[in-house]
Task: inverse folding
């Protein structure tokens, strides 16, 4: 039973990592689809928490997210399975591609394929933003909406590093909760 | 000796690159081009293109690319290990904290504000890619094929909940045909 879980963790992340074009944010929707919708090993909320933690710790987001999921599902051995699954595809592909790099870069068909896939990647991200944004709205209403707008403006128009955006949001949340606690204790 | 230097360099890249993706690029350039001269600037630009057209995190892509150059398969493995080791230690620590603190009120407050921020960051990254897909590389000419692919992909994802990987492959192949023929 355990071995099957490990194997599933490895194959799932291997398969997802092999298709994650376009950076760490693309892997979150794919991981969500697999581990929340298909396997049911994580809840929607947990997935968002893990995505937030992956984003705010150093290193590649895809690697962080995989480690967090592996560890959540099956402890340290689980994390090892997902690390291997995430790292092996790019390792193998780059090793091969770097040899034929010149030919691949100048190939018209490859260029067209990548250009077309870019549009689909954008759609995948839009899909997950709609779903996740809807959840934020349902759970937190205007506060959630305001935080989303602020974070979007900071990262998009003010070019604030993503790590700082995450850190600021964490501070706001932590301070707000401490204040509420304090008031509750004071009032009682 | 070179293997040790490779490991240490990519360990630092893994440790200090917050924010993922493009945020890691300057760190990689500083280590690989400026400090050690393992790649020329042109080779580095090639690496960035290569990283963009292949799957996987840019840190791992760079580690494999530079590692293979300097020390073959062993070099690639050691550089990649260096790049992901900080992630392993830090992410597992955070995962343990998450499990312990899940029901703590302050930690709950932190997570509640983190979720909207993460959605916004994903939206911002998505918009960059969407603009590239709809307006082409120069950002001026409207790309009808790209727009059609985007709309069709989004429709099947929302309506039929198809697996994103199949949508990406399908759109890629369809679009490749369209771009080459039209």
Result:
């Amino acid at each position: 039973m355990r071995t099957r879980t490990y194997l599933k963790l490895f194959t799932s992340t291997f398969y997802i990592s092999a298709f994650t074009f376009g950076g760490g944010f693309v892997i979150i929707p794919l991981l969500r689809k697999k581990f929340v919708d298909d396997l049911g090993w994580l809840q929607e909320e947990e997935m968002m928490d893990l995505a937030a933690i992956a984003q705010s710790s150093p290193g590649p987001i895809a690697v962080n997210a995989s480690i967090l999921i592996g560890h959540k599902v099956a402890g340290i051995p689980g994390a090892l399975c997902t690390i291997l699954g995430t790292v092996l595809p790019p390792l193998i592909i780059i090793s091969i591609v770097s040899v034929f790099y010149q030919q691949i870069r100048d190939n018209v068909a490859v260029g067209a394929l990548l250009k077309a896939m870019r549009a689909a990647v954008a759609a995948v991200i839009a899909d997950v933003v709609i779903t996740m944004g809807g959840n934020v709205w349902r759970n937190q209403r205007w506060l959630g909406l305001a935080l989303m707008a602020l974070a979007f403006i900071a990262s998009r128009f003010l070019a604030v590093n993503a790590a700082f955006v995450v850190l600021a949001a964490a501070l706001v949340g932590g301070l707000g909760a401490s204040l509420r606690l304090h008031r509750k204790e004071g009032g009682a | 000796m070179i293997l040790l230097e490779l490991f240490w360099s990519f360990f630092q890249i893994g440790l200090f690159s917050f924010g993922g993706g493009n945020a890691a690029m300057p760190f990689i350039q500083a280590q690989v081009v400026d400090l050690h001269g393992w790649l020329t600037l042109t080779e580095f630009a090639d690496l960035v293109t290569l990283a963009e057209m292949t799957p996987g995190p840019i840190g791992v892509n760079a580690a494999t690319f530079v590692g293979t150059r300097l020390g073959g398969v062993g070099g690639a493995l050691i550089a990649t290990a260096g790049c992901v080791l900080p992630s392993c230690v830090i992410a597992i620590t955070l995962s343990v904290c998450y499990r312990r603190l899940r029901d703590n009120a302050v930690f709950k407050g932190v997570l509640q504000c983190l979720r909207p921020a993460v959605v916004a960051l994903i939206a911002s990254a998505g918009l960059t890619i969407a603009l590239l897909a709809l307006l082409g590389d120069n950002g001026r000419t409207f790309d009808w094929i790209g727009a059609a692919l985007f709309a069709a992909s989004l429709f099947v994802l929302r309506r039929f909940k198809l697996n994103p990987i199949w949508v990406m492959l399908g759109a890629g192949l369809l679009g490749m045909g369209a771009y080459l023929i039209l």
In short: Chain B has a mean pLDDT of 87. Residues 105-181 of chain B form one domain.
